[in-house]
Here is the input.
Amino acid sequence: MPGVTVILREGEAVAVEAEIGVSMMEAIRNAGIDEVVALCGGSCSCATCHVFVEEGAEALPEMGADEADMLECSLYRQPNSRLSCQLPVTAATAGLVVRIAPEE
Ligand code: FES
Here is the structure.
């Protein structure tokens, strides 16, 4: 299970053992972190799973058009913004660091 780091809104860094095959959104929620609401359940239509990728972006797939469209609507979009439901956990994502975006 690749280890990833999730930085909470208040700045606490939490080490998470993520299961290969789930999305980063699911890994965060499976770890008991409730700051990612994931209203749409991971279908790329709510943006409540918004994170900032602080380290390890090279291990992630390119952003798709749907994800980019959803992020366009976010008040907090940054160059490193991603929707965590669109980020698959793989062996290559070990060491990934994501910061949970502010609540919209
Ligand atoms: S959970 Fe809704 S866009 Fe990711």
Observations:
- The first strand starts at residue 3 and ends at 7.
- The beta strands are 3-7, 13-17, 50-55, 81-83, 97-100.
- The pocket of FE2/S2 (inorganic) cluster is lined by residues 25, 38-40, 42, 44-49, 70, 83, 85 (CB under 6 Å).
- The two ends are 31 Å apart (CA to CA).
